[in-house]
Structures are given as structure tokens and as C-alpha cells.
Amino acid sequence: MTQTALFLSLAQFLTSLGFMLAFLALELGLAWVLLYFRLRARAGGASWMLAYRFWVRVYALSLILGFAAAIPVLLQLGTLWPDFMARAGEVVGPLVAAAVLTAFVFKSCFLGAMLYGQRRLSDAAHTFMVLMVAVGAGLTAYWIMALVAWTQMPIGASLVDGRYQVRSWLPILGGRLAPTLFGLLAAGGLMVAAALMLAVTAVRTRTRPSDEGDRSVYATGLWLLLACILAQAVLVSNLGRVLLPAQPARAAAVVPQWHSTAPADLTVAAWPDADEQANDWALESPLDAPDWLARDPAGAVRGLDHFSGMTPPVLITYWSLRLALFAGALLALLALLAWWRGRRLGYEPDGLRPWGRGALRLSTALACAIQVAGLVHLFVGAVPYAIHGTVTLREIAATPGLGAHAAVSAAYVLVYAALLLGFYQLLRHITRYGVVPVARRRGRA
Amino acid sequence: MIESLAAILGLGAHDPAFWMPLAFIAVFFVIMVAGVVLDGFDIGVGCLSLVAPRTLRPRMLALLSPWRDANGFWMFLGIGLFAAAFPYAWPDTLGRLYTPLALLALGTLLRSACFELRLRAPVELQGRWQFGFGLGSLLTAFAHGALLARIVVGYETGPGYTGFAVLMGGCAVAAYSLLGATWLMMREGGELRARAVAWARRAIRWTAVAAVGVSVVLDFSNAGVFLKWGDGSHGWVVGTTWGLVLACFVLAEMALQRMIGHSYRASAVPFCLVLALFLVILGGLAYSFFPYLVLDEVTIWDAAAPVGTLRLSLSATVIALPVALIFNLWVYWRMFGRSRPPEPPSFPG
User: Fold this and answer.
1) Is a pLDDT exceeding 80 seen at residue A165?
2) Searching chain B, which residue's CA lies closest to the CA of residue A442?
3) Which of A82, A252, A348, B121 has CB 3.0 to 4.6 Å from B91, enough for a Cys bridge?
4) The CATH fold of domain B17-323
5) Could you tell me if A113 lies within 8 Å of chain B, comparing CB atoms?
6) Bridge-partner residues for B155, per DSSP?
7) Do A405 and B98 touch (CB under 8 A)?
């Protein structure tokens, strides 16, 4: 297994997984936003129905891409990391099956009725369908995040003869990490959905006067964006407290603490240099080193040289986190500004200035950047482990021929890029021209 | 047979460690057959949409629309179940099939994404999504054939085996096209029907190549399978299978020759015959492989998860299966016969 092949495998798998998780998160966020729109519409607001009709299309697009992207992830789990199932099948198998069955049951019972059956259902029944779709999206995502959390912190199962055996499902499903990761995914999806709502409203009202629906979406988006930023900030600090003590190498890379030293000052910002194994420049705070940094019995802080090479790629781990935090801070500022402006305008998007519209579009890019950087940090920071602390990626990796490996990876990148472009194109199209409903009747064509 | 198997394994026939993997492999087989047959006509129509005249393509895809959601889910369900029930078979099966499974993943991804995006795209962009759907179908069909070829030769690699995999991939495209074409000629009249007959007549020869090729290679590459079919103790199985395969091919060819200018009443005959053909061939393959997942190496009991996990997964399946059954009966209810147009919506008041 050469370094190049391992890199290609990891890049291929993380691209697929990231694509799937991104669209599942957006789908999850939009499902709950749609439920809110539907409930408000039911309480008697025609404007909310306008909003629902438009955003259900965006929901459908992200749902399509999220579901379609699940197949490559599952197959790559088998082709790229074949021994993963042999080692951890007892934990992973039921979780995968639970996710698939949940998606299947909720999709087959409720999704068709929600998307295509509104005319044939009563108001209450259709609202119930929207609720069940949102619940199903949440449950499916929870199984997946429980699986991700378990690979980051394998609790509740013990390794016997090279195979994990489940001791108890409660810590695997409950634990401290799984709910946090699920919360982060849901808040991230809601955040991207909120930012998208703001940006689309800003673009739509540039070329035509706003209607009631635009005002409803604008107000909801502003409040939701603020709430999500707050929620993610709380969840990220919680995640750090749980994950960093359990993964000392990641913690050392986050600082970055290159060498084991006596209790150091906390590095707030640095320009790390991987070749020199040192920081070219560092800003240190007078506070003591935080307690999540691993120390040896003598009290010295463990640096990256302490882990005999079992460390994640320092630069990616470091910069992805900083990028996410920086983009988060910027988005928080933007959101506060937009919220303040929005309140002064009475949530009337017609009153937005060109720079305001530009800022709202920028907020979508920032929200996406935060989520992508966060995912990169979560997964790359766990390298070289597939299951943290016990199973490395290298021991479970397959050894495909390098030529085929490179060709397949390139094909994946092409297809994902084409699908992303298609999503963007369709989003731009409906933003400009509105939504024409799609009909689908059982057994008739 | 059940008792003798249990005796060989040293387990009681009522021991969960014995019958649970059996139950799972039965469910898995049903899902696989449903995936091949029900997703199959869909794949076939997708492949044919690449060669159909531009004016017919939208209609072909519209005919698939009511089933797309349900069709796309079989493979998903199959992999989920395979993960839950047979995790220890993954390194020996999926781990050895890098290229065909990558093609399968790309094909399925393209198929499920492009079809739905096309439905929601403006007219001027629909062409490229349609092409994506066709390309995805072609990749999926080819990958199915190549997978089968790799599995029946016991995952051997080498130039000859690669050639066989490519041949089988091409034949699988033909086989799915046959299924798709016969389905189309049942669903729709006019030009599409005439063209479907022409497509089907070309595809059926290569389908026969696939059926014979895969059987012969499986027989001669594995002594156990050869004995199972050739030692005469199960003569009736061999006779029935080959008799049915031959009858289906001959009758389908005859039906296709008489198709043009015939009444609509008999237009379902080729589809039913091809369906029967697929079922018999899949049944024959399952009979050859049972009880192995990898011939001579991994049995379903070697690969099965421990009983506790199986029990958990089985209870989840038992809850989900009725939903699947009812839902699918409900969805596939009008799969046969001529397509009926949707009724216009009724507006109250």
C-alpha cells in the first residue's frame, strides 16, 4: 500500500462522504424549515404557503443529491476499506441497516405524499406528512452521526481477536459525542438553509417587488441564522471538550504544539511550518495551557513528536479549524448586521441596498465554508485512524491498481462537480423564474 | 437438505445461528431479484434512450417516472442488509471488486440524480440530464455484467478474465435492453413500439450469449458447481432449468417476430417471457452458489454476524418488510399492460 494509493483512497472516500453529508444536512435543515412554513400556513397565512411552494423545490433537489450520493459511500466502504466491516461489522452493520431501513420506511410512506400529494390530501394530513418527513430525515441522520461518532470515540464495544464486539448499544447511540455531532450536523444544515433563504430572497427581490412570502422568508432566515450560529458555537465548544482529550494527537495539531515541553503558554494563533516542525510565528496568550492538551505524568505538554508518527496531517487539521472559526466569526458579524438592518427595514427585502444583497450572498458562501471546513477537520483530524486508537486506515485499506484508482477518482470528481454545478444552475433558475410544480401519479404516465 | 446442512455445520435446525443466516440470505436474494427485475427494465429503458430518436426520449423517460423512486431503492436496501447480516464477507467480496463496483456506484449515482434533476430542469437543460441518465444506465448495466463475470470465476484476475468480464458487461447491457424494450412495447404503441421490437430482436441474441456463457464458465471454473449440475442426482433441476431457459428464448424470439402489426392484446407476452427468463437464470445462479457467498471459501454461516446482532437486524427487518411489501404492491400495481394517462385533477367548486 503506497502513500499515493492511500491518499487517493482517503480523498475519494472523504469526497463522497462529504458530498453526501453536506446534502443530507441541507435536506435535514430544510425539512424542519418546511415544517415551520407548513405549520404557519396552516395557522392561516397565505404568504407562508408561497414560501413553502418555493422552498420545497430546493428541499427536493438536495434530497435527490443526498440520497443518490449514499450509494457511492456505501460501496466505497466495501471497495476502499474492505477490512473495516470485518473488524467493526458488529457495530457498523446494524447502524448502516438502521439508517437504510429508516430512510426507506419514511421515504416510502410519507415523502411521495408530501411532494406530489398535496392536492389530494387534507390540510392536516399534508402537514402530518411534512412532519413525518422531517422526523425521518432527523432519525436517518442520527444513525449516520452515531456511526461517525463511534469511529471517532469507540465506546460501548470491545476489541476481541481483531473484531469489535458490542457490549452495550446505549453508549454507542447515546454517548456524549453522537448527540453533539448530530446537533452540529442539524445546526449546520439549518444554518446553510437560513443563509440560502436570505441570499435567494435578496436576489429574487432585486428584479421584482417583494411579496408577502419574501418578507416571511427574510424574517425567518434572519432569526434562524442567528440561532444557528449561537447553537453551533455552543456545540463546537462542547465537541472540543469531549473530542480533544480523547484524541491527544488532534489536540496537539490544533494548537499546534510541535514538541513536548514544560507547560507552555497557549498559542492563540500561529503560522505553522510542517517542514521545519515549528511555528514560524506564534501569538501566545498569558493563560495556562488548556486542560484538554495531553500531558505526561511530569506535567509536560505532549507535542506532536510524542505520537511516533501517528499524527494527522498537521497543516490541514490546523487550517481547517481556523478557517471554520474565522468564517464563523465573520458570519456572526454579518448576521448581526443583517439582523439589525432587517429589523430597521421591517423585514422588507425591497429596502436592501446592493451591498446588503451582496453581503447576504456572501453569508451563504461563508455558511457553506464553515460546514465544509468543519467536516474536513473532523475527518482529516482523525487520520491515520479509521477507528480511533485501534484500527488504522492503512491496515483496512484495499490495494487497487494505481492507474484504475486514479481514473476512478477523477471520474468521481467529475461527476460530483457536474452534480454540484447542476444543483447551482437549477437553484439559479428557480430563483429567477420561480417554481413550476412537478406531477407524479402512481402507475400512470 | 436443511437437516443435512445443519448436521454438517454441527448445529440444530432450530438453532438461531443456523437459520438466521438462512433467513437473511433468502431476504437478500429476494431483494436482489427485485433489484435486477424491477430496476432492470428501468436500466434497460435508460440504455435504449441513448440510441432512441431524440423525439422519443422524453416519452421513454416519462414512462419510467412513476417507478423511479421505488426502483432506486432496491440496491440501497440490499447493501444495507448485506452490511447488517454478512459483515465478514465484505473483504472477500466487495474488497475484490474495485473497478466494477466503482462503475456501479458512478452509474447508480448518475441515474438517480440525473432523472430527478431532469424532471425539475428547464426544457433547454433537459437534454444533458437525459444523457446523464442514459450514461448512468449504461454504466450500471455494464457493471452488473462485469460483477457477475468476476464472481463466477472466483475473483481470478488476468487478461482472459478481464476479457470475459468485458464480454459479460456488454451482454448485460443487451439483457437489460431486452427487458427494457419488451417492457416498452407493452406500455406504448406507435413508433416507440415498432422501434422497441427492433431493439429487442437485436438484444435477445446477446442475452442468449450471456446466459450460456455465464453457465458454462461457472460450470467449468468450479468443480463443486460442475458436480452439483452434472452428477445426475438432481437431474430434474438441470432438466427444468435448461428446458425453461430454452423455451423462454425460443418463445420470446417467436413472439418478437410476430410483434409488428399484431394486436395489442399479446404485447405483454415477450415481457413476461423475458421476466421468466431472468428469474430462472437468477434461480440457477443461486442454486449453484448456495450455501457459499464466495465459492468454496466463504459460506453464509462464516460470513454472518453473531446471533445477537442478527436478531437485532432481523427484528428491524421484520418491522420494515411489511411496509416494503405493501408499499411496493401499491407502487408496482400498474406496471403491466398499456400505460394509462393520468387523470386530470378535479377542482372542487
Assistant:
1) yes
2) B66
3) A82
4) Formate dehydrogenase/DMSO reductase fold (1.20.1630)
5) no
6) none
7) yes
The three cell numbers locating residue A177: 459525542
CA neighbor of A373 nearest in space, from A232, A268, A238: A232
Q: Give ipTM to 2 decimals.
A: 0.93
DSSP three-state, residue A77: helix
Written as nine digits, the cell of A75 is 460501496
Strands A385-387 and A391-392, bridge-based pairing: antiparallel
User: How deeply is A89 buried, as exposed, middle or buried, from its count of CB atoms within 10 A (0-12, 13-18, 19+)?
Assistant: buried
Helices (H) and strands (E) in chain B, counts: 14, 2
Cβ proximity of B294 and B52 under 8 Å: no
Asked if the model's pLDDT at residue A346 lies above 80, the reply is: yes
User: Which residues contact residue A149 at a Cβ distance below 8 angstroms, ignoring those fewer than 6 apart?
Assistant: A175, A177, A178, A180, A181
Q: Which residue has the cell 435508460?
A: B46
Dihedral pair phi/psi, residue B84, rounded to 5°: -75, -40
Q: CA of B329 to nearest chain A CA: how many angstroms apart?
A: 11
Amino acid, single-letter form, for residue B111: R
Model confidence, pTM: 0.94
Q: Residue B73's closest chain A neighbor by CA? A: A104
CA distances A338 to A217, A233, B12, B161, B231, Å, are 14, 19, 70, 63, 80
Altogether, the residues listed in chain A come to a count of 445
User: What would the DSSP string read from start to end of B92-139?
Assistant: TTGGG-HHHHHHHHHHHHHHHHHHHHHHHS-HHHHHHHHHHHHHHHHH
Asked whether A134 and A34 are in contact (CB, 8 A), the reply is: yes
Between the two ends of chain A, the Cα-to-Cα distance in Å is 51
Q: Which one of A65, A68, A94 has the shortest CB-CB distance to B84? A: A94
CA distances in angstroms from A196 to A49, A61, A225, A318, B32, listed in the order given: 18, 14, 10, 28, 40
Rounded-to-integer distance, Cα A79 and Cα A444, Å = 39
Task: Name the residue in chain A with its Cα closest to that of B310.
Answer: A94
Greater confidence (B328 vs A170) lies with: A170
Interface test with A, best of B109, B139, B186 (most A CBs within 10 A): B109
DSSP label of A444: B
Question: If you compute the radius of gyration of chain B from its CA atoms, what whole number of angstroms results?
Answer: 21
CA–centroid distance for A95 within its chain:
19
Residue count (chain B): 349
Instruction: Give tens-digit pLDDT for B319-347.
Output: 887 887 787 778 888 888 888 888 877 77
**Which residue in this structure is represented by grid cell 427595514?**
A345
